[in-house]
Amino acid sequence: MKYKRILLKLSGESLMGNQSYGISPEMLTMYCSEIKQAYEKGVEVAVVIGGGNIYRGMQGSAKGMDRVQGDYMGMMATMINSLALQGELERQGVKTELLGGLAIEPISKAFSRRRAIEALESKKVVIIGGGTGNPFFTTDTASTLRAIEIKADVILKGTRVDGVYTADPEKDKNAKKYETLSFDEAMNKKLKVMDLTAFALCQENNLPIYVFDMNKQGNLQRVVQGENIGTLVCQNV
Fold first, then answer.
1. How far is CA 168 from the centre of its chain?
2. Exposed (0-12), middle (13-18) or buried (19+): which is 170, by Cβ within 10 Å?
3. Residue 229 banded pLDDT, cuts 50, 70, 90
4. Would you call 52 exposed, middle or buried from its count of C-beta atoms within 10 A (0-12, 13-18, 19+)?
5. DSSP 3-state of 191
């Protein structure tokens, strides 16, 4: 295996499937099956998932809601998705530990680096909900922070496209895919790999990001084995 310990970042929207909101049982089952395959190969897996399929704090703020209140509502949405992941993973026979930027007894304990690493080392998939526990930070930033804290080898950003392109491949047929990118190149070209706070944290801590298509069965397994099917963003290319 190329990676021993990974932080898998999923968007909340990815759980919608073809629905306009909420959680698609088919997508949930597929994602958990993908995680299970990596887990059974001995990869230590932590997962952070967004909450955009349920609620987005920034959208609420744009419509007049208090930003802080809206962000906390978004954090709660990530906990709902995290609970869904936990339930399906355990149904598939995978041991899990749910930790939160927000401690919500009896659902989850507060995240701590020690708790997370102990759970990973005891062969559990660690699901981390609740963002950073603070308003004004995205789940991109939360996933980066948690990856650094648990000393993950890489952030695997699962999306619906197979990497980073020169333009949006769903809108521009001439868009070209990058196989590798340096942090500086991605920043200078204003390629939206992650939000700027998350991206800066990755660069400062030399934490690579691998962007790949999570919606194709078997891809997570291919990535952890080292197959080049997405885009690697790292310090030096």
1. 20
2. exposed
3. very high
4. buried
5. coil
Show contacts of 178-184: CB within 8 Å, 24+ apart. Answer: 178/231, 179/228, 179/231, 179/232, 180/231, 180/232, 180/233, 180/234, 180/237, 181/231, 181/232, 181/233, 181/234, 181/237, 182/233, 182/234, 182/235, 182/236, 182/237, 183/233, 183/234, 183/235
User: Alpha-carbon distance 71 to 58, whole Å?
Assistant: 7
Q: How many CB atoms lie within 10 A of CB 24?
A: 16
- Angle formed by the axes of helices 113-121 and 139-149, to 10°? 70
Closest CA to 9 of 227, 223, 226: 223
Q: How does pLDDT run across 105-164, given as a tens digit for each residue? A: 899 999 999 999 999 999 999 999 999 999 999 999 999 999 999 999 999 999 988 999
Q: Which residues of 205-217 are buried (b: 16+ CB within 10 A; e: fewer)?
A: eebbbbbbbbbee
What's the whole-model pTM score? 0.94
pLDDT tens-digit map of 171-218: 888 999 999 999 999 988 988 889 899 999 999 999 999 999 999 999
**What is d(CA 78, CA 82) in angstroms, rounded to the nearest whole number?**
6
Q: What is the pLDDT of residues 17-61, one digit of tens each?
A: 888 889 999 999 999 999 999 999 999 999 999 999 998 655 655
84-121: burial string, b at 16+ Cβ within 10 Å, e else: bbbebbeeeebebbbbbbbebeeebeebeeeebbebbe
